[in-house]
Specification:
Order of helices and strands: HHHHHH
Number of strands: 0
Radius of gyration: 25 Å
Number of helices: 6
Distance between the termini: 86 Å
Helix content: 55-70%
Strand content: under 5%
């Protein structure tokens, strides 16, 4: 009985993971650079306000090396195909909320974000999720703006009822 040699599949380096490793290293370098530029740190203590950012930068740098090593070996599992439509719905909802917060108010802008996110996850039609999100956001606005006296953007809906 003869056995055929196992077919070796050599995976190429995972370029997306290598890009992530580079981004992690850049973040580590920016944290170190930003922390080093801060002056006036107390020198009387061994552990001062600059210690923790250096620890975080070290962790990012270790993760960058680890990610690059694993990416070069091709050890990351194959990724599923990405769906761009849900991402566009969420980003569009965030953009709509940011653009409408001052004019439409917290409730309406956040209701649109809620509806766009629900649509991204395949839940409910917009005609149902926009009013539901607006009502939920209004309840949140009442709790935070009236109950806790926090400043949230007001719009026509908030002015209508309060």
């Amino acid at each position: 009985m003869s056995e055929t040699p196992a077919k070796q599949t050599t995976r190429r380096p995972d370029w997306a993971a290598l890009a992530i490793a580079v981004i992690l290293a850049v973040v580590a370098a920016v944290v170190v650079w930003s922390t080093a530029r801060q002056g006036g740190a107390a020198s009387y203590a061994r552990i001062g306000p600059t210690t923790f950012p250096y620890v975080i930068a070290g962790a990012f740098f270790i993760l960058a090396i680890w990610t690059a090593f694993e990416a070069w070996r091709g050890d990351f599992p194959e990724r599923e195909r990405q769906e761009i439509s849900p991402i566009l719905w969420i980003v569009g909802g965030l953009a709509a909320q940011m653009l409408l917060l001052k004019t439409a108010g917290f409730s309406i802008a956040t209701g649109l974000l809620f509806a766009a996110t629900a649509r991204a996850f395949g839940r409910g039609p917009l005609w149902k999720t926009i009013p539901l999100g607006t009502v939920l956001a209004y309840i949140v606005w009442v709790i935070f703006a009236r109950g806790l006296s926090l400043s949230l953007p007001t719009g026509p809906l908030e002015h209508l009822l309060f």
